Amino acid sequence: xxxxxxxxxxxxxxxxxxxxxxxxxxxxxxxxxxxxxxxxxxxxxxxxxxxxxxxxxxxxxxxxxxxxxxxxxxxxxxxxxxxxxxxxxxxxxxxxxxxxxxxxxxxxxxxxxxxxxxxxxxxxxxxxxxxxxxxxxxxxxxxxxxxxxxxxxxxxxxxxxxxxxxxxxxxxxxxxxxxxxxxxxxxxxxxxxxxxxxxxxxxxxxxxxxxxxxxxxxxxxxxxxxxxxxxxxxxxxxxxxxxxxxxxxxxxxxxxxxxxxxxxxxxxxxxxxxxxxxxxxxxxxxxxxxxxxxxxxxxxxxxxxxxxxxxxxxxxxxxxxxxxxxxxxxxxxxxxxxxxxxxxxx
Length: 346
Hints:
By secondary structure, the protein is of the alpha/beta class. The chain folds into two domains: 3-217 and 314-336, TIM Barrel (Alpha-Beta Barrel); 229-307, no CATH class. It is 46% helix and 12% strand.
């Protein structure tokens, strides 16, 4: 065997637990991105050997059913559905997934109840959760979660406060009971290998797939990714701790600047007695209502919310999903090969 085939074999061994858990050829999940992670992108990722994930978001059970059926018409390979635990119809959404034999249900956006985890597993699907800290990861495993995603603050969309570099060091050495997938700021295969070697079972990527050929995102949305640098993907700023702002990472634009003005004006009106605290908070929270759709579907990338992770700086062209995944694998293999050469250099 030559050095490259040895390196391929090593990569396969490193992420085999992730491949086995997902039922995929490569242990790469697509991040669940509202308006983006739908039938076309999800099926493309699964067909290319990865693991696509439908972003249910605020969908009704009927709408989710339609999306699952449409995805199954485009791929015979496994894919997952990401459900938000705060959704008022969560139980019905789980039941829709189970009725259509979805293999994996990813419970995101909060801590799922033991009853929901049990409902997923009793229905024959695998239950996946998110762990932003070691203590919560251990708790979720005790509750019956079968795999975890640890997502660093480098990710796009709603983010926690800790980088993946730190999360991986905090969690991977101490939680070996279930497969753990790393996420946040990942855009290259060599970076994925570094986490596999720390004990991760695979990786979740979003930003790079949002700008793929199969993504239904508007051309303006994709082109804004091509122009952006890592530093352009910033989290939303909170002006006053009395009025919390959920941190969301996206590209800085006219909308983000207007949001700061809107906060300042709302706080001024509250202080002058023109608004009560509840109305002021709602005014701040509602500023971005519909703005993700405005950017992704309508292409208004100046006023909409252009959610993107810091890996956006590595998106240099709009490529097919199959090419993106093949590229990640090649980079991973090359990294292992180079490492072996460094170690065994005479």
